[in-house]
Design brief:
The complex is a heterodimer of chains A (160) and B (83). With 160 residues, chain A is an alpha+beta fold. Helices cover 32% and strands 36% of the residues of chain A. Chain A contains 4 helices and 9 strands, in the order βαβββαβββαββα. In chain A, strands 3, 4, 6, 8 and 9 form a 5-stranded antiparallel sheet that branches. Chain A has a 4-stranded mixed sheet with strand order 1-5-7-2, with helices on both faces. Chain A is globular and about 50 Å long. Chain B has a 5-stranded mixed sheet with strand order 2-1-5-3-4. The radius of gyration of chain B is 12 Å and the shape is globular. The chains are: A alpha+beta (160), B alpha+beta (83). At the A-B interface, strand 4, helix 2, helix 3 and strand 8 of A face loops of B.
Chain lengths: 160, 83
């Protein structure tokens, strides 16, 4: 018997505009009765970084590659976990503390797959999706340095 | 081939993209970085720590020993900090 193929729509958007989490979840789950869990992660611009007050954050990306790179990891996530939907929205431009930067939604029949896939996607977004952050503070502006802890977080998903 | 620069690599080189024609002896990413570094002080500054530089060929991450033959677009950047 051939098992039914569960549709897993993948939405990837890179945009300057803000996103509405509730609306994105509604779009992902609309007309679906097979989804039992939606995990949402949102990344928000923070005011404090190593005790320095951040006044703004500018995000630059590599158009074309950013979508492809997120797409490759979304495909890997759908092959590793039984997902029923994935949405990744990454904003670019200049942001003030408190503003949304990134949204990851993962939908599955059960929560564990949704939780794990969301973490997997975020870990890879931080280390391999071509985005770069520049911080503005009273001390001036500077590019945010990559963190070893982010590489370690991504490395745990590597198949041995 | 087209070369793109991002974040502080772009700022140090002083441009976002350009078309270059390295000599045939330049075969790998590592050799391309060394060749670019010899072009001017701006490139030398951008690539002063080659191990830090991340490279993508035609939108895919590659290591420094990757061959550049046939590449349409090569991008150089610092490590990614999205999310």
């Amino acid at each position: 018997m051939i098992s039914p193929v569960t549709a897993c729509p993948v939405t990837i958007r890179i945009q300057e505009d803000d996103f509405d989490i509730a609306r994105e979840i509604a779009v992902l789950t609309r007309s679906r009765t097979d989804i039992g869990a939606v995990v949402s992660f949102s990344g928000i611009c923070r005011a404090d970084e190593d005790s320095a007050k951040i006044s703004a954050l500018t995000l630059e990306h590599y158009p074309g590659m950013a979508e492809e790179e997120i797409g490759r990891h979304a495909d890997e996530a759908t092959s590793r976990w039984p997902l029923n939907g994935v949405t990744v929205i990454h904003r670019v431009g200049r942001f003030m503390p408190g503003q949304n930067i990134v949204l990851v939604l993962t939908a599955s029949q059960h929560r564990q797959a949704a939780f794990e896939a969301a973490e997997f996607l975020m870990d890879y977004l931080k280390t391999s999706a071509p985005f770069w952050k520049k911080e503005e503070s009273a001390a001036g502006t500077g590019w945010v340095e990559a963190q070893a802890r982010d590489d370690e977080a991504a490395a745990r998903w590597t198949k041995s | 081939m087209k070369v793109k620069y991002f974040a502080w690599v772009r700022e140090r080189v002083g441009k976002a993209e350009e078309t270059i024609e390295p000599p045939a002896s330049v075969r790998t990413v590592e050799e391309l970085i060394a060749w670019l570094s010899g072009q001017s002080e701006a490139y030398a500054y951008a690539f002063e720590k080659p191990k830090v530089i991340r490279t993508a060929i035609d939108h895919a991450h590659v290591k420094s020993d990757a061959a550049i033959a046939g590449a349409r677009e090569i991008a150089f950047s610092p490590p990614m900090t999205g999310g």
